[in-house]
Amino acid sequence: MNPLKLPTAHGTPPVSGAVRVEPEDFVVREWLGFEADGEGDHWLLTVRKRGANTHWVAKQLARQAGIHPRDVGFAGLKDRNAVTEQSFTLPVRTAVSDWSGVSGDGFEVVRAQRHRRKLKRGALRGNDFDLVVRSLAGEVQAVGERIATIAAKGVPNYFGPQRFGHGGGNLLRARQWLGGEIDLADRFERGFALSAARAALFNTVLARRVTDGTWNTLLDGDVANLNGTQSIFRVDQVDAVLSERCERMDVHPSGSLWGRGELPSQGQVALLERQVADEEATLAGGLAKAGLEQERRSLRLPVMNLDWRIEADRLHLKFRLPRGAFATAVLHELIENVFGQAGDEAEEE
Predict the structure, then answer these.
(1) CB of 103 closer than 8 Å to CB of 46
(2) pTM for the structure as a whole
(3) Can you give the CATH number for the domain in which 282 is found?
(4) Which residue in the list 25, 37, 79, 128 is annotated as catalytic?
(5) Does residue 163 share a domain with residue 87?
(6) Is 25 among the catalytic positions?
(7) Tens digit of pLDDT for each residue in 269-296?
């Protein structure tokens, strides 16, 4: 199973092109969904970084503040090979009294405001992307039609290659570790390995539903995800109301993020998910043994605020995605072999 040899939902990508030639070709701005409180015992910093990963920046902020890195809060990880703006929190009482304009290797603080709470992982609504695809070639005249389809119908919510590490290294280590061939002492390496294993199983299930045309359709036995939330509910039998809600993307079918416990899905949906888990018994068994619980992830990804233009041989794209989604999943429907061009850090969360 190759979790990155994935079918497209809307046909063969119309064009080829180069992504991430420069960090400025991949700009990400975090969308928290709330503003700073304006008071409190923490600083809420907006940090612009280039060529640096999130953990590195958190450590540099902690070093300048004279605190332990665990006291630095952030909501998600952002790609290293990009220009990104994301938020961090630090306690007010540190060695730095004014964070405005503070900078370091690969980052600078562009805004500092008081806030009441430490920022927790996952405490964001999504991300805004501003991308450039260079050396555009192929059926350029078909790009507009494909983008209109993506805006209207969404794309398969694949985990991108960043989740699997450079050259698929995270997934390889997951197979070796969960298969008893190696030991991973570092908790971050274990976390990346488990995430890669889960993502591989999910991508396989989603790919099969893309192939059979049910990735954007509710089936009897599905578990529906309410758009824009983590809320899910079982679908014992699909009726006209649910079909209409799915058509307008108010709800989406979901797939398993494998772990221990019973699948909430039923019927042919559960049969497919168990079949994939049986095919990858080492990964599925290891995830359950590690204590991860069964969770769900939407099979369909709505693409919001989508805008585009072509200048010479460059495609400029802007869009917003909910948290946990990958911009490469959008590009996969537009650009040939985009998964083979991705960066080496695991996230756009």
Answers:
(1) no
(2) 0.93
(3) 3.30.2340.10
(4) 79
(5) no
(6) no
(7) 999 999 999 999 999 999 999 999 999 9
